[in-house]
Backbone:
């Protein structure tokens, strides 16, 4: 749905993006917010801007509070391993217990709520992979608007590769999941793969507008995209459009706030009587929107399945490279996105490698015979073994 913002509002937005500090940005966003007309087509935008303002307010508060030398609260955790997954959930659902059970992290579970105020990372070994799992501070209703330590929790989720939405099967799991989904929606964190992805990279003067459409524009022309961007004062940028994008998708991306993070639902405390019935209801509610994995941190039930489901939702593949003269492939795999090609693999090894690559040989179960000589565009799958030949 179009936002139908006035020229004045668009100009204000552009000013806000160029604010020099959080204080100025907050002021400009408040002005912008008051200029957004109230109708169905701007619901999301108004929520987004509110979230942004809340996060800026928080940042300013923190700045004021922070004494020299004091610890700053962490809005991100440095990534390690094949992927980073954030555990999101209300207090007492067993986030700390899960981290303690599946990772090497040394943590204490406690019996008072909101014990976890700082993100706690640990490494989870799954087959020959290591996933970094991070326990985020508990979600509460209103997190996205800044309640609790909320903004920090959602900032962590935004920065992660995937999410575990954790619920307690002893309480009403549908209510819990609804709360999590609601907060994610307000924070503009999508857990459903969008039809389109639009990237706008602002450039310096003189570059002009360069628009690349990798997918397709739906009910819009390149001209329309250009006009829209210019109405927001965006005249120098590289714009990439993937998938099937409408003009609304392009407009949303101007507000730089929508991100997609694959997620699974983890239903904990499956060891307790009565949890089966709650699991059934939860599954019925979720349908085929998300994978629901029942686990018990107490008995260890479901933890292997959790690894498989995490791996699947991340949409990654493992590729093992092999030297032309050696018999065995490397023991540590390269981690690539599903759909990656030999060219992508070569690039991830070294740019020089990519330029000098002449062909590759692939061993794979799905091929009628192995090895097979393949070119740069060959699509790799999980557990493929590749031997690269350079000129
Ligand atoms: N019965 C049962 N209790 C659990 C399980 N996992 C965690 N708990 C209990 O639930 C409470 C909250 O766990 P905790 O990990 O601190 O939750 P957090 O607040 O989400 O980090 C603790 O008393 C745990 O012992 C489980 O799988 N089964
Ligand atoms: Mg905890």
Residues:
């Amino acid at each position: 749905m179009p936002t139908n913002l006035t020229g004045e509002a668009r100009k204000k937005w552009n000013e806000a993006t160029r604010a020099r500090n959080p204080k100025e940005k907050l002021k400009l966003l408040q002005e912008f917010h008051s200029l957004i007309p109230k109708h169905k087509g701007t619901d999301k935008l108004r929520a987004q801007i509110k979230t942004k303002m809340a996060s800026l307010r928080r940042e300013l508060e923190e700045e004021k509070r922070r004494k020299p030398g004091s610890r700053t609260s962490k809005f991100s955790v440095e990534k390690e391993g094949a992927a980073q997954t954030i555990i999101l959930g209300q207090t007492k659902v067993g986030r700390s217990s899960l981290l303690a059970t599946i990772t090497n992290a040394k943590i204490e579970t406690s019996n008072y709520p909101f014990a976890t105020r700082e993100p706690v990372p640990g490494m989870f070994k799954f087959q020959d992979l290591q996933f970094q799992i991070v326990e985020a501070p508990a979600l509460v209703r209103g997190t996205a608007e800044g309640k609790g330590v909320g903004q920090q929790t959602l900032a962590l989720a935004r920065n992660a590769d995937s999410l575990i939405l954790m619920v307690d099967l002893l309480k009403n799991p549908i209510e819990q999941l609804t709360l999590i989904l609601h907060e994610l929606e307000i924070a503009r964190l999508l857990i459903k793969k969008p039809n389109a992805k639009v990237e706008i990279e602002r450039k310096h003067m003189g570059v002009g507008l360069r628009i690349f459409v990798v997918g397709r524009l739906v009910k819009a022309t390149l001209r329309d995209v250009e006009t829209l961007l210019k109405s927001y004062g965006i005249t120098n940028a590289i714009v990439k459009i993937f998938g099937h994008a409408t003009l609304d998708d392009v407009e949303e991306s101007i507000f730089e706030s929508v991100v997609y993070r694959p997620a699974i639902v983890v239903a904990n405390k499956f060891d307790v009587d009565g949890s089966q019935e709650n699991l059934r209801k939860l599954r019925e509610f979720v349908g085929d929107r998300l994978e629901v994995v029942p686990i018990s941190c107490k008995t260890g039930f479901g933890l292997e399945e959790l690894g498989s489901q995490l791996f699947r939702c991340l949409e990654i593949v493992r590729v093992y490279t092999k030297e032309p003269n050696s018999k065995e492939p490397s023991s540590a795999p390269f981690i690539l996105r599903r759909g990656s090609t030999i060219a992508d693999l070569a690039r991830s090894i070294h740019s020089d490698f990519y330029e000098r690559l002449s062909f590759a040989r692939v061993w794979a179960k799905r091929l009628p015979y192995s090895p097979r000589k393949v070119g740069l565009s060959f699509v790799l799958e999980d557990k493929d073994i590749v031997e690269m030949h350079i000129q």
